[in-house]
Write a structure and sequence with these properties.
CATH architecture: Alpha-Beta Complex
Order of helices and strands: EHEHEEHEEEEHH
Bound molecules: inosinic acid
Structural class: alpha+beta
Helix content: 25-40%
Strand content: 15-25%
CATH class: Alpha Beta
């Protein structure tokens, strides 16, 4: 089965394809099916935004579409940047400028706890919908470490691994990340759905 990923982020494609290929699902970018959908993320929750994106791409492509809405929630920032993670600090900032904003927002803060959240929504042309949520707890490092990954990876430190996300290989990150966890749950849901045993 072909599924269109409602995202232009090739990092997300790699992470999703690695897990969903185990079910024989081929995940492709919008550009590969000739569409370019710009969805305004007007939802107040990750769940709502994932559903908005998947629905729009399913309608444009006529194919099952999968979307992930994700973000970083920092306790001392009142749960922010949360659903605003991609646009934290305004449009046009680099990933680095955004994570530096998080670091400066936490200056002098003792509570550096945070979590990444990912909500996945898949919408089928017949209107059926599957959803899954995953979280990964961690703490915000005092300074960026590591070269890999994207977004806030260099400042998201996972105590059990003693590494930031940006210091992990793709495999290591997938095994514990919010998206990896949401995808594992989604994989179970999709398997049930494809076997006709979904409730
Ligand atoms: P989305 O594409 O609307 O889900 O935007 C999510 C934003 O949250 C991204 O632009 C990143 O800034 C951040 N984010 C989500 N997942 C990750 C991750 O795995 N690592 C680093 N940053 C992430």
């Amino acid at each position: 089965m072909k599924m269109v990923l409602a995202s232009k982020n090739p990092h997300k494609l790699t992470e999703m394809a690695a897990i969903l290929s185990q079910l024989g699902v081929e995940v492709v970018l919008e550009s590969e099916v000739g569409i370019d959908v710009d969805v305004e993320e007007t939802g107040e929750t990750f769940e709502e935004n994932a559903a908005l994106k998947a629905q729009a791409v399913m309608e444009a492509s006529g194919l099952p579409a999968i979307a992930d809405d994700s973000g970083l929630c920092v306790t001392a920032l009142g749960g922010g940047p949360g659903v605003y993670s991609a646009r934290y600090g305004g449009e046009g900032l680099t990933d680095r400028q955004r994570y530096e904003l998080v670091l400066s927002g936490l200056s002098g803060q003792l509570d550096r706890s945070a979590k990444f959240v990912s909500c996945i929504c898949c919408v089928f042309p017949n209107g059926d919908r599957l959803t899954a949520r995953g979280e990964c707890p961690g703490i915000i490092a005092y300074a960026p470490q590591g070269e890999d990954g994207f977004g806030y990876d260099p400042v998201f430190f996972v105590p059990e691994k003693r590494k930031t996300f940006a210091q992990m290989t793709g495999e290591e990150k997938n095994a514990i990340s919010h998206r990896g966890r949401a995808l594992e749950k989604f994989k179970v849901e999709l398997e049930r759905y494809l076997n006709g045993t979904h409730q």
